[in-house]
Amino acid sequence: MPIQKINFKEKSILHVDYRNMNEQSMIAQVEAVRKILLEAKAPQLIMSEYNGKNHGYPKFMKRLKEVTAEVLPLIKKSAIVADLNPAQKLILKAYNFFLKRNLKAFPSREDALEYLVSEHTTDFDVPDYLRPS
Q: ∠ CA(13), CA(17), CA(22), 5° rounding?
């Protein structure tokens, strides 16, 4: 199932699975997540999962940036599960710069889940160069 609610350590997490999707399917998935967040009307924990076959499509990245900016107040914390190459790490840095957040990528689902449910982690821990002056 591409989008599902999962429970981990008594926390609800929106799991968004983009693995093996083409660009159009990924854009449709972003729209579905947008709708879920707007209907929930409360900040959510989100785990997005990618694989080497699909991250970085230009139209997808553009729409993801637009939708994320719109629903950012409804994202409590977000994590990516993916093995990012150096170019993808740069894309993530640019995405974080635009959003003024520190979205993190993890090599495993378990690491991402632990990060999301921890009360001692945040994606608001942006580097100084991203902080408003």
A: 155
Question: Is residue 132, in this structure, part of any structural domain at all?
Answer: no
Dihedral in degrees, nearest 10, Cα atoms 41, 44, 123, 54? -110
**Residue 75 pairs with which residues in a beta bridge?**
44
72 contacts: CB under 8 Å, gap ≥ 6: 99, 101
Q: Give residue-wise pLDDT tens across range 13-29.
A: 999 999 999 999 999 99
pTM for this entry: 0.89
- Tell which residue, 87, 1, 74, has the closest CA to residue 39: 74
- The answer to the question of residue 107 being in a domain is yes
User: Which amino acid would we find at residue 64?
Assistant: L
Contact 127, 102 (CB under 8 A): yes
Number of domains comprising the chain: 1
Residue 133 lies in a domain: no
Residue 101 lies in a domain: yes
pLDDT band, very low/low/confident/very high, at 1 (cuts 50, 70, 90): low
Domain span at 79: 3-124
